[in-house]
Amino acid sequence: GNHILSVNQFDRDAIDKIFSVAASMQPYAKRQKRTTVLDGAILGNLFFEPSTRTRVSFGTAFNLLGGEVRETTGMQSSALAKGESLYDTARVLSGYSDIIAMRHPSAGSVSEFAEGSRVPVINGGDGANEHPTQALLDLFTIKRELEYNGKGVDGLHIAMIGDLRYGRTVHSLSKLLCLYKNIHFTLISPQELAMPDYIIDIIENAGHRLTITEQLEGNMDADICYQTRIQEERFPSQEEANKYRGRFRLNQAIYTRHFQSKTVIMHPLPRDSRMEANELDNDLNLNPNLAIFRQTDNGVLVRMALFALTLGVEDLVSKYERDVIW
Ligand code: CP
């Protein structure tokens, strides 16, 4: 099927195409233009795990292309709670929609669902496994931010910080970055929350530079500082998760000590803003290099592009343009 399940399915040409379509979506996302290219199409937005931006930006992206959105949130409200299989659920729900976006707490579940689906399925995060659309919007953001600094992705130095074990966004992003040249990955986490070995193997086999450390040290020449949240919901117990809360705080003073004045600060969000965690302090909100809300805006562009390309309407978007009335 024409699914988006893992970043493994993309090469650099496919990424370039997605990003060029995403850039062309800007006037529609900014409401300077309207299009009804997906008039009559229905998105099944199935979120069996909490989400704010992925769920709402998938829905917004589909609406901005003129389509309708049906929402299902929470396992308890679906027949999965009665023991229905993901396969049967997919057979049924794919009869009600033209495309499905799905998030689920267990790794591999979205692929299992896709096997039963009669329409394309897009993975909005499956457990600690992958979050391919997040990785694409992160890479799109990295490209844009670096262009602003006069650089490209080849030769990039990225520092990834925090929960690299359970954080699926860093897994997908690392794999995508491996398609580029001479990337320097600095992975900063306690050993217990280290990047999985299979990702380390991919980085090393692709010949990239790898630095692994447990703490922020010295002044790094990183272009990107990619901070993460401790994924408490994936830990065996709350007690276990509590051990790592607050281990990787970042505020303006810490940023100034360890990073260059141009280092771009990213985070997939949500950031845990409770004082005991505080992984991105509000004092960074005034830092122009804080790209977190540019990431969330870019998420709409990238998801619009993925819908248009998956449904084969990328060349028809401007043909179905309408006036903006209000
Ligand atoms: N970045 C991200 O996946 O956020 P949500 O959990 O709010 O969708």
Automatic annotation (TrEMBL):
What does the record give as its pathway?
A: Pyrimidine metabolism; UMP biosynthesis via de novo pathway; (S)-dihydroorotate from bicarbonate: step 2/3
Q: Provide the GO biological process annotations.
A: 'de novo' pyrimidine nucleobase biosynthetic process; 'de novo' UMP biosynthetic process; amino acid metabolic process
**A Pfam family assignment:** OTCace_N
Write out the entry's keywords from A to Z: Pyrimidine biosynthesis, Transferase
Where is each Aspartate/ornithine carbamoyltransferase carbamoyl-P binding domain found? 3-143
Enzyme Commission code(s) on record: 2.1.3.2
What does UniProt give as GO cellular component?
Answer: cytosol
Q: Which PROSITE patterns does the entry link to?
A: CARBAMOYLTRANSFERASE
Q: Which reaction does it catalyse?
A: carbamoyl phosphate + L-aspartate = N-carbamoyl-L-aspartate + phosphate + H(+)
Q: Name one GO molecular function term.
A: amino acid binding
Query: Belongs to which family?
Result: Belongs to the aspartate/ornithine carbamoyltransferase superfamily. ATCase family.
Provide the function of this protein: Catalyzes the condensation of carbamoyl phosphate and aspartate to form carbamoyl aspartate and inorganic phosphate, the committed step in the de novo pyrimidine nucleotide biosynthesis pathway.
Q: What's the protein here called? A: Aspartate carbamoyltransferase
Originating species = Alteromonas aestuariivivens
